[in-house]
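Worked example

This section walks through a single chain of length 37. The input is the sequence exactly as stored; nothing has been trimmed or padded.
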Amino acid sequence: MNMLNAGKTIDEKVNVSIAIGLFAGKMVTLARAAELS
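Given that input, the structure is written out below as tokens.
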């Protein structure tokens, strides 16, 4: 297995995890705002 490919895969997984985390956070914020309003 190529080390460069392994590193790229890990970076992609991290980026995807961050994106999902931010998206989930926004959804929770919107849900709370909807409940309060």
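What to look for: Residues 15 and 21 are 10 Å apart (CA to CA).
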